[in-house]
Design a protein that fits this description.
542 residues; alpha+beta; de novo design (two linked rop proteins); 2 domains; four-stranded antiparallel β-sheet; 14 strands; 17% strand; binds 2-acetamido-2-deoxy-1-O-phosphono-alpha-D-galactopyranose; binds magnesium ion; Galactokinase gal
């Protein structure tokens, strides 16, 4: 199982890049980073961590409903070089963080230990059996994220995972303190573009702090994914684990089928290789995901969760009063999924999903027009949930900040079920594509069709597109793509298009002249916004 493998650690950068098989300018970047580190801090880095960004080929906004997704790591990545400082001359665990990019000024910070209450929610009076626990803490202002916030997010989890505080173990063992460190960051994943620069930052930070403190032993890829997921939620939205899984577990020339239920698992899926490329094109609308979280991303999380509860009730599926059941679990319970989950080929899941695509009509609001456009008010939604108001708030609203006049349970769930099915179909087509009697052109057409259908569903049912993304994907189809869709959370950011290998150049040239925001760009800036990419490998270090 890919998730159980250890994180690759190479003895030198040469060895690492030979194995990655990527372009030599990447190796040069690595060497430059090490040299610049030595210039700034007077010694060589003891460890360099690498984590790539990712493109999601299909399966949008379904990871937090616990359905499988199909992303791939891209060649663009974040590198963090790090070395310990003299522990006698600097505070324990203090960090002196630099970034190669002139826009990001150096920052220093130190963790502190804080006491908090275990086993109670913030609005509850601590019960008699409440336990005080000490936790490491780093100040991160979610409203004003800065570059080092992502470094802190990675560090946060490492501190609490690998340095249990005195109250949790025996008092003040000298070796249970993190080292003071210098670190230097460089990255090539464009920020706010749906290519998960944030996951690349958080994964590389988590990895580098584990490594420099000599805590990497026994940490599998799966553990790094789980740590990074939790870490990233400190700087972002209530997301699923797709980005971190792709950034950690991916292998070259394959996409990664990642499932989250009943447990995290990931298997490489070979793509119809030499005949086609994925081209990324940035809409140039920056998706400020954290800024709009209340009305966009986090609202979708709540809508899909409440949809799952209401659907359970309407289908007569058992659901606990305080259970935050997901749409994936509803599917499992409706179709009597065996305890350990359906078997590899996903036939059980597929037929259950086919049924759910129809049953989802049960969520249509009675007053809605034919498309179920109107949604439900908060009061109505609470009524539908079958929970008393206070309990509804505790379970669905106390831990997440959202705002809406109407909640769209039907449209969101409809997208989730149909998108989950498209992922299974996409994967299936890729798996069968290697057999000799399938024509490549047919395969690419089918994959493209699924990408287009995904875009339409994101745009119409999940409302996570924007006019520029609609336009850019249409222009991509007009320019000859087999299919085109937004990738990542949406509301801006990048599109991904499937293009025949021998058409890539023509395709890129066409889009450069037809997508209006590209017309004023030139040189490197233009090369940065549209480029072909090959699936790359996941996080590693040397
Ligand atoms: P982006 O916005 O591309 O980082 C986000 C979530 C994913 C997933 C996608 C939508 C984070 C860290 N990631 O990706 O988990 O839900 O949106 O499919 O927020
Ligand atoms: Mg992100």
């Amino acid at each position: 199982m890919a998730a159980q493998l250890p994180i690759p650690v190479y003895s030198s950068s040469d060895e690492l890049y030979k194995d990655l098989g990527t372009a030599t300018d990447h190796a040069t970047r690595w060497t430059n980073l090490a040299e610049e580190f030595e210039k700034r801090f007077g010694r060589k880095p003891s460890y360099i961590a690498r984590a790539p960004g990712r493109v999601n080929l299909i399966g949008e906004h379904i990871d937090y409903a616990l359905f499988g997704v199909l992303p791939a790591a891209i060649e663009r990545d974040v590198l963090i070089a790090c070395a310990p400082r003299d522990p006698l001359a600097h505070p324990r665990g203090s960090v002196n963080a630099h970034n190669l990019h002139y826009k990001y000024p150096p920052r220093s910070f130190s963790p502190v230990k804080k006491r908090s209450q275990a086993g109670s929610t913030p609005d509850e009076e601590p019960g008699e059996d409440a336990v005080h626990v000490e936790e490491w803490h780093l100040e991160i202002d979610k409203k004003e994220l800065r570059w080092e916030s992502y470094v802190k997010a990675g560090y946060y989890g490492v501190l609490n995972h690998s340095f249990p505080t005195a109250s949790a173990t025996s008092p003040d063992e000298p070796d249970s303190h993190p080292l003071p460190v210098d670190l230097l960051v460089t990255g090539t994943v464009p920020a706010g573009s749906g290519l998960s620069s944030s996951a690349a930052m958080v994964v590389s930070s988590t990895l580098v702090f584990l490594a420099v403190n000599d805590k990497l032993e026994g940490v599998s890829k799966g553990t790094l994914v789980e740590m990074s997921m939790e870490n990233e939620q400190r700087v972002g939205v209530n997301s699923g684990g797709m980005d971190q899984a792709a950034s950690v577990i991916s292998t070259p020339s394959a996409a990664l089928y990642v499932t989250f239920y009943p447990r995290l698992a990931a298997t490489p899926v070979s793509l119809p290789g030499k005949s086609a490329s994925f081209v990324l094109a940035n809409s140039l609308v920056t998706s400020e995901k954290a800024v709009h979280a209340r009305t966009r991303y986090n609202l979708r999380v709540v809508e899909t969760l409440v949809a799952a509860r209401v659907l359970s009730l309407r289908l007569g599926v058992d659901v606990g009063a305080r259970e935050r059941i997901t749409l994936r679990q509803v599917v499992g319970r409706v179709a009597n999924e065996p305890e350990g989950g359906w078997q590899e080929d996903d036939r059980g899941l597929r037929s259950a999903l086919e049924r759910m695509v129809k049953e989802v009509a049960l969520l249509r609001p009675p007053t809605a027009d034919a498309d179920g456009q109107e949604g439900v008010s908060l009061e109505e939604m609470i009524k539908w949930s079958g929970l008393p108001e206070k309990e509804f708030h505790d379970v669905y609203l106390s831990w997440i900040d959202v705002e809406a006049e109407h909640f769209q349970l039907y449209k969101r769930a409809k997208h989730v079920f149909s998108e989950a099915l498209r992922v299974l179909e996409f994967r299936d087509i890729c798996l069968k594509a290697s057999s000799a009697d399938v024509s490549t052109n047919d395969v690419l057409k089918k994959l493209g069709g699924l990408m287009d259908a995904s875009m339409e569903s994101c745009s119409k049912d999940f409302d996570c597109a924007c006019p520029e993304l609609d336009q850019l994907t249409q222009l991509a189809r007009d320019a000859g793509a087999y299919g085109s869709r937004l990738t990542g959370a949406g509301w801006g950011g990048c599109t991904v298009s499937l293009v025949a290998e021998d058409q890539v150049e023509i395709f890129i040239t066409k889009l450069k002249t037809t997508y209006p925001p590209y017309k004023d760009l030139e040189g490197d800036t233009l090369e940065e916004v549209i480029f072909a990419t090959k699936p790359s490998s996941g996080a590693c270090g040397a």
